[in-house]
Design goal:
The protein has 334 residues and is an alpha/beta fold. The chain has two domains: 121 residues, NAD(P)-binding Rossmann-like Domain (Rossmann fold, 3-Layer(aba) Sandwich), CATH 3.40.50.720; 191 residues, Dihydrodipicolinate Reductase, domain 2. It has an eight-stranded mixed sheet with strand order 7-8-9-6-10-11-12-13, with helices on one face. The protein has nine helices and 13 strands.
């Protein structure tokens, strides 16, 4: 992710990358490298890009903010809402420093076009949403740091499902009523979930359902929004891995029959996107916030807190899973 951000900054222009920090020096690096995060401040950067495992995020972000630096940080924003609260406190104390989290799905072309359609109001009120985001765990699944709860905070839900939850909240606002089933089915020796099913409702009555899966053997992204006058769906999402296929926006406007009722199977309009510009858009917004003082719209600390609280609520809404989490915590602390 650090290399992806570096490439996007070079493409944008206006950034001068002065140092990179990693666990080992890369002999092919084109910039100076250090292995201790504290050493980056010897190079007097204005901006710190934080692309690290979740466990390290809050301390590194808070330290950067305390040094008066602007910070761009990957998602998930830590391991839990307490991590986000800690960073919000540091953000407020830092005054004018910019803090942005990398929820790049918000600025994918298909998602932005869907948001424009909703905002225009011509398709009427939003009734409900469905989202499926899943992948095959892969041969090194059990060894991946993302599946160590001490480092990550959870499994597939916090790692990947959090993107879909963030989109749900972007389209419909926060949820007040949450039910869930969180399961460990295939990788039973791994201490995090490999599937999460959630059903949520906003105070306004918009219902959303999510399936976040590490046993979706065919990598899948599908987001559906059903409105009074039709529906919008996004099938596939352009990604660094290229494994989710093309990014396709489908739009259908209801046609009414002679009695004024919607006819089944309205005609679809399909728009395909072939370029992932989300990384560039995120860097551009961050640059404008730092250099021109423009507000962050995607990836604010409040959005990060809202979605992390929703993740926690989904974990807690399944009594069996929340008991598993409490038992695991007792074993660790005991």
């Amino acid at each position: 992710m650090g290399k992806i951000r570096h490439k996007a900054m070079e493409s944008h222009g206006g950034f001068d990358v002065v140092v990179a920090c990693d666990t080992a020096i890369d002999p092919s690096a084109t910039v100076p490298m250090v292995t201790r995060p504290s050493d980056v401040y010897d190079f007097a950067p204005d901006v710190v890009v934080c692309s690290v495992p979740n466990i390290f995020i809050p301390d590194l972000v808070c330290t950067a903010l305390s040094h008066g630096k602007h910070v761009f940080c990957e998602k998930p924003p830590g391991r839990n809402s307490s991590d986000v609260q800690k960073m919000i406190t540091a953000e407020r104390a830092a005054g004018g420093s910019v803090l942005k989290f990398g929820f790049n799905h918000r600025v994918h072309d298909a998602i932005e076009e869907a948001q424009k359609l909703l905002s225009a109001g011509t398709m009427g009120d939003l009734y409900f949403m469905r989202g499926v985001y899943g992948k095959a765990g892969g041969p090194d699944y059990a060894k991946n740091w993302r599946n160590d709860p001490e480092q990550s905070g959870g499994g597939i839900l916090i790692d990947q499902g959090i993107h879909m939850l963030d989109l749900f909240q972007m389209f419909a606002g926060n949820f007040c009523d949450i039910q869930s089933f969180v399961q460990r089915k295939f990788w039973t020796e791994v201490p995090v979930e490999d599937n999460a099913f959630a059903l949520m409702k906003t105070p306004q009555g918009v219902v959303a359902s999510l399936h976040s899966s590490a046993t979706q053997w065919q990598h899948t992204f599908r987001l559906e929004l059903y409105l009074r006058n039709g529906f919008i769906s996004v099938d596939g999402i352009l990604s660094a891995s290229g494994s989710y296929g093309a990014e396709v926006l489908n739009i259908a406007i209801n046609r009414l029959d002679s009695s004024g009722n919607p006819s089944p199977n309205p005609e679809l309009q399909e728009i395909r996107f072939t370029q992932d510009l989300s990384w560039n858009k995120e860097v551009a917004e961050f640059y404008d916030a730092v250099v021109h003082g423009k507000p962050i719209k995607c990836g604010t600390s409040q959005q990060a807190l809202d979605v992390m609280q929703l993740v926690e609520a989904i974990y807690q809404a399944d009594p069996e899973w929340s008991q598993t989490l409490r038992t695991s915590a007792t074993e660790v602390t005991g």
